[in-house]
Amino acid sequence: MKKKTNSNKQYVLLLFTLFVTVFLFYSKAPAEDQIRPSAIIKLPEDENAILVDKKNQTLFLVRSKAGELMVRYKMPCSTGEMAGVKQKAGDKKTPEGIYFLKDEYEDQYLSPVYGVKAFPLDYPNLMDKRTGKDGSAIWIHGTNKVLKPMDSNGCVALENSSILKLAEYITLDSTPVILIEKFNRIDKETVVKQEQEINHLLDQWLKAVESGSYHEYLSFYSDEYLPEIDWWTKWMEIRKNSSGPDSGFKIERDRTGIYYHDQVFVALFDYSATLNNEKLLLGKRKLFLEKKDQVYKIIGEAYQTVSKEFMTGQTPLLAAALKVMRSASKQEPVVETKPIITAKPSLETKPVQETKSIQDIVNQWLAAWSTKDMDKYASFYANNFYSDGMNKKKWVERKKNIAGRNNIIKVSGKKFQIRQTNDTCEVTFFQDYQSSGLTTQGTKKLNLTNKGGSWKIYQESWKEK
Q1: pLDDT digits over 82-94, tens only?
Q2: Full-prediction pTM beyond 0.85?
């Protein structure tokens, strides 16, 4: 009887020990899964982020849950066979920064090296272009080979089972892909402060769009960055007629993500406008910010996506407002009031000689680029030129590099439209570009300013056909 009692006691003790072990394990598991990387300031609730630690050849899939970041999966990966940050095409290095996935390819469209699935990144982004980095085709993909550390041409390669698992948690143009050399942690107090400060800036910036002046709007931008602003005059007119007490007029952001790498913060959010009590999603807006002298400033911006109905070639905010106005009035489409000058004379246009002068300048600019006369090419740009994150010096340097890599460059334009207001002018035309390595067509837009009687380009943009 005594032996049986001892046996029962041992059994109870074993069960108790097992219970305590299991309890302690599961009570600690969530804390062990928590993560606080310096690269993620704010991840929208129930959203996922991909974090690639190049040094340790590890990919983390992180999710946001109840205000905390949790590791959903941890996977081995393979990055570029050459160490360091990608600078140019063919250097076999993996870039570093904040990126987003643009598309998804299934195995039937892929060569075996990419495995069963692939997602291309939006490299190079605005910050990469600003610093002269180039190259393309940086993907996250599977592989049909044995996965080895640092064995890709610059992409992030995963085992096929891992890319299929990862694919379930990816939202194109929304899930951030953060490529870093090494995973760094940050204390919660710092993250909370950064999030509060950036949220405050974003709220004030939205308020300036909604009801502020031109100067108030520009005050949120770095002195070294000039945003496109040719839409502001028309927006002021629309805003004046749309902001009555019963209109529900409002500019908003939702599901804001804030990310960080190498002194640059990236904010991505759903950007919407409520006009005549109709809320319209314009697209996903992306702002690049930096902090100098304890003040955050916008140093670059782009639309990560634009809602299909507002892909009109205009600023999406303006396109949405005009759509609402047309719907409300049930009249013919409202058009911009700025005079349009074409090469054909009419009663509405500026004098033919002035039109010809502006178009001649653009043709001379095209000829300088086609002949690779870079000194003459540079002379067409204003000293305060700023586009695509580059000032005049960096822009010309980039073009010189392109000219040096191509034996032939041939650029031509047609279907010119010229809009002029006082001492500024916007020239839009269809451009045909051919070089040794690229042939493309699309719409070129040049913004010019009259400097001492001479027209100079102060902004330039391109939209491929």
Answers
A1: 999 999 999 999 9
A2: no
State both tokens at 48.
Answer: 């996922």
One-letter amino acid of 217: Y
* CA end-to-end span of the chain: 91
- Report the amino acid identity of residue 241: N
Tokens 């020990």 belong to residue: 17
Tokens of 438: 């690229």
> Which position has the token pair 């002068």?
357
Residue 46's CB is within 10 A of a number of other CB atoms, namely 10
* CATH superfamily ID and name for 33-180: L,D-transpeptidase catalytic domain-like (2.40.440.10)
Q: Output the six-digit token pair for 226.
A: 């000039």
Q: For residue 378, what are the CA distances in angstroms to 14, 171, 417?
A: 82, 42, 23
Q: Which residue has the tokens 């980095």?
A: 133
The pLDDT score that the predictor gives to residue 357 is 84
Structure tokens at 319: 């396109």
- According to CATH, the topology of domain 358-464 is Nuclear Transport Factor 2; Chain: A, (3.10.450)
pLDDT, tens only, 95-145: 999 999 999 999 988 988 899 999 999 999 999 998 889 888 999 999 999
pLDDT in tens, 284-326: 999 999 999 999 999 999 999 999 999 988 899 999 988 887 7
Question: Which positions ≥6 away from 194 have C-beta within 8 Å?
Answer: 41, 258, 260, 265
DSSP string, 137-191: --EEE--SSPP-TT-BSSSEE--HHHHHHHHTT--TTTSEEEEESS--B--HHHH
Q: Please compute, for residue 406, the number of CA atoms within 13 A of its CA located in the half-sphere on the CB side.
A: 21
Residue 273 confidence (pLDDT) above 50? yes
- Indicate the fold that domain 188-325 takes in CATH: Nuclear Transport Factor 2; Chain: A, (3.10.450)
